[in-house]
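It is time I had a proper look at our fold encoding. Can you supply me with one protein entry, sequence and fold together? It will help me judge whether the discrete encoding reads sensibly. Leave the record below and I will have a look:
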Amino acid sequence: MIQTESFVRKSLHVEAIQVTDENIEEVARWCMGTLVDHPETENASAIKYVKVRVHHPMNERQTKAFVGDWVLYAKNGYKVYTQKAFEAAFDKEIVYSDAQSAAHIESSTSPTRNVFEQNAG
């Protein structure tokens, strides 16, 4: 009989900034992108976006960071996420101080947890 093992996907740590009207120029500089005026339409004036150099984009939209979008930097370079996609994929990383970290480790090795693990295994 085969026996399976449990695995957890490795964490992907990224640096991220949400594009706003106020920081769009700074974001373009940060990601070495270009600030572009999206062509005007009949019903709207020009909309600015950051043209981001994305490694292997799947479509043109993944290279355009509009206000409300997120620009991320990870080991493979820059990526653009819409607000909805960003919220679905990422949680804010919790950084513990040394004292908080020790308390977290202690609580995760509490007798209650060990009893649960023994009963589950």
In short: The chain has four helices and six strands. The longest strand covers residues 34-38.
